[in-house]
Amino acid sequence: SNFSTLQMEMKIVEDLFDKAELVYNLEKFGYPEHPKQTSDPRGQAEFFERMRFSRIAPDELDKQRDLMSKKLAVTYRAIEAQMQRQYEELSAGDAVYKELLCAMSLKEVRICDLDRSISLHEVGSSDGTLVWKIPFFKERTTSTDYEPVLFSPPLFTDKFGYKLSAVVHLNGQGRGRGSHISLFARINKGPYDAALTWPFKNKVSFTLMNQSSPSDHLTRHIVPDGSSQFQRPSQPTGQVFGFEQFCPKDDLEPKGFLKDDTLFVKVQVAKSALF
């Protein structure tokens, strides 16, 4: 393996350094003395190694030193190349990991965009009442890569009326973030806005449908007050209005609102203006 090769090359370097040090000591201190009364085998081995080198002629000693220097340089270059290869392999692995993370993030963004695209092109309602099915609740709310915000199909108050849509933040928004689902509506730019009366004055009702007990639906209302959210929109989508804390997430399943990982939301617009 690469690690084993690197270990072998490092051992060669250590041996070369030991021999280079021995040559240096011979040149500086001369002939070695026999260690007196020693039983240390390492001391004996070092003595005989010094003896072997001390019998080499000076010019041959220079050759030995040059040879060891060249070997040391070659080994150093080999180690350097090996380390560079390992660095490149690690860098390549890191690049692949980053590409995978990027691909996963793009996938989540595409899912979010697809949710929005489907919602915008779905057939909505033209009688002022929309029942909106929201499947895959747990899958959407456990994702950490994108905010689970869903947009309903369009809702028209009548065939030639106001155009609205609903927006749900499954993990909550504002004061409801993390603890509630947030439910809003907004008035969108419609084909008949020029013929309608502004500001928008019809009461809007939001209902989280109870799939276990229809008598226990959770309904809340918004009464328009003439503020900016209810003026004629100048952009394709208007400002939202609704409830940041519509329903605690912990209540959804126990109380029967969430069943088979699916929610049902009903949005209803009153037929006549309130003022």
Would you write up a description of this structure?
This protein is an alpha+beta fold and 275 residues long. It is 42% helix and 20% strand. The chain has helices at residues 2-29, 41-54, 58-121, 137-142, 249-252, and strands at 129-134, 149-151, 155-156, 163-169, 180-188, 204-208, 218-222, 237-248, 263-269. Strands 2, 3, 4, 5 and 8 form a five-stranded antiparallel β-sheet that branches.
Head-to-tail CA distance between termini = 82 Å
Residue runs with pLDDT of under 50 for 5 or more positions = none
* Overall outline: elongated
Sheet with the most strands? 5 strands, antiparallel
Q: What proportion strand? A: 15-25%
* Helix percentage: 40-55%
Short description:
This protein has helices at 2-29, 41-54, 58-121, 137-142, 249-252; strands spanning 129-134, 149-151, 155-156, 163-169, 180-188, 204-208, 218-222, 237-248, 263-269. By secondary structure, it is α+β, with helices and mostly antiparallel strands.
Summary tags:
275 residues, alpha+beta, 2 domains, five-stranded antiparallel beta sheet, four-stranded antiparallel beta sheet, MATH/TRAF_dom
Layout: helices, strands, pairs:
Layout: H1 2-29, H2 41-54, H3 58-121, E1 129-134, H4 137-142, E2 149-151, E3 155-156, E4 163-169, E5 180-188, E6 204-208, E7 218-222, E8 237-248, H5 249-252, E9 263-269
Antiparallel strand pairs: 1-9, 2-4, 3-4, 4-5, 5-8, 6-7, 6-9
Helix pairs in contact: 1-3
